[in-house]
Amino acid sequence: MALNRLFQLSSLLRSAIALTLRRNVGLSAVAFNRAKDLDPVQKLFLDKIRDYRSKGSGGIVDAGPDYQKNLSEEMTKLQRLYGGGDLTKFPGFKFPEPKLDEVAPK
Predict the structure, then answer these.
(1) Residue partners of 67: CB distance under 8 A and separation at least 6
(2) Is 23 helix (H, G, I), strand (E, B) or coil?
């Protein structure tokens, strides 16, 4: 009986240790991967993302004057159609609490 309990406990302990080692090896692999040189395709991808980050200031990257002209024309049309306002911001909604009448229990 005691021997059976010992085997069950050792089995549980073994599975817990195996799980912990798997997690640690997985994390270590990610950490060591960053230290190594990247794959050329990954490096090209990251370089392009960094390039776009340096170019962009929250707008469309490499947008020419034609794009800006079309954008302003479309914004003017929408403002005329929907009655003005700032179309670049999400509208704010207010939902007032409804007044509820209490009903007396019968």
Answers:
(1) 60
(2) helix
pTM here is 0.38
- The pLDDT score that the predictor gives to residue 105 is 80
Residue at 35: amino acid letter: A
Amino acid symbol at 15: S
Spell out the residues 6+ positions from residue 43 whose beta carbon is closer than 8 angstroms to its own. Answer: 37
CA dist 59 and 43 (Å) reads 25
Q: Which residues of the chain have pLDDT under 70?
A: 1-7, 9, 21, 25-36, 57-58
Distance, in Å, from the CA atom of 12 to the CA atom of 78, rounded to the nearest integer, reads 66
Instruction: Give the whole-angstrom CA distance, residue 34 versus residue 38.
Output: 8
**Angle CA 50–55–58, to nearest 5:** 100
Integer distance in angstroms from the first to the last C-alpha of the chain? 66
Do 85 and 79 contact (CB within 8 A), yes or no?
Answer: yes
Report the C-alpha gap between 28 and 80 in whole angstroms: 59
